[in-house]
């Protein structure tokens, strides 16, 4: 075997070793990027993590007429001591985009606090279920948030499967000009979405950096063509407590 062929073979073997096991169920031990949500206890697999998305707050709108505008509810999952090598994203679950100045100030303060503690804070992720036909409004919100963030922080968002198939390409391109990545969720709540496979060809054609979000112990069969996309950045697994049951939801994504 020639030297060039040996180099190619070694490269292929290394690439194959980095891919998740081709299995029907999501085994968290096969991955290195995880969501850590409120109420979910740390698991041994976190010792192998290179990327963590840690929930920090939930932004809700007024519950009734006459109440003040949106407020942030603290969400502090039990987080193990982090290695300085771990990329840390602070996650904010948003039920409204009508943020006030207090919310922005609190978000920036939390970034500084994690940074001062010696963590490698990569950036912020917004988890908001934006309707496919209203992505332009979401892009406007994200553009404003991007301007408020210090330049060295990156911006990530979660995405719905429906975006890739039915969103206006111009709206998706606009998002790509603002965010550093989108994590497309193949689950809803604590369940894999039935028929997620039919959305994957469209996701594979996205022209912005993307990851695939999986649910621990959920269903997943990676298509071969996904790895060939120059925009594909890997997987993120949403961790669950052992007592949480997982199945495939019969409903379609919203």
UniProtKB/TrEMBL annotation:
The keyword Signal applies. SUPFAM superfamilies: (Trans)glycosidases. Residues 1-23 form the signal peptide. Keywords: Signal. Coiled coil: none annotated. This is DUF3142 domain-containing protein. The lineage of its organism: Bacteria, Pseudomonadati, Pseudomonadota, Gammaproteobacteria, Pseudomonadales.
């Amino acid at each position: 075997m020639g030297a060039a062929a040996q180099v190619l073979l070694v490269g292929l073997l290394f690439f194959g070793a980095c891919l998740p096991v081709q299995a029907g169920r999501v085994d968290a031990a096969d991955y290195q990027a995880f969501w850590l949500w409120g109420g979910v206890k740390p698991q041994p697999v976190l010792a192998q993590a290179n990327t963590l998305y840690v929930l920090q707050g939930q932004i809700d709108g007024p519950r009734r007429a006459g109440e003040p505008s949106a407020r942030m509810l603290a969400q502090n999952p039990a987080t193990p001591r982090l290695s300085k090598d771990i990329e840390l994203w602070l996650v904010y679950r948003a039920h409204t985009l009508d943020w006030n100045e207090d919310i922005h100030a609190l978000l920036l303060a939390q970034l500084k606090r994690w940074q001062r503690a010696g963590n490698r804070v990569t950036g912020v992720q917004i988890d908001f279920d934006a309707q496919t036909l209203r992505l332009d409004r979401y892009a406007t919100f994200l553009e404003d948030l991007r301007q408020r963030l210090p330049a060295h922080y990156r911006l990530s968002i979660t995405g719905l499967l429906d975006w890739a198939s039915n969103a206006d390409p111009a709206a998706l391109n606009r998002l790509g000009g603002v965010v550093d990545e989108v994590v497309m969720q193949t689950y809803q709540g604590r369940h894999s979405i039935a028929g997620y496979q039919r959305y994957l060809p469209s996701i594979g054609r996205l022209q912005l950096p993307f990851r695939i979000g999986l649910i621990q112990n959920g269903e997943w069969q990676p298509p071969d063509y996904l790895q060939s996309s120059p925009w594909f950045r890997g997987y993120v697994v949403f961790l669950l407590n052992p007592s949480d049951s997982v199945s495939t939801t019969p409903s379609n994504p919203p």
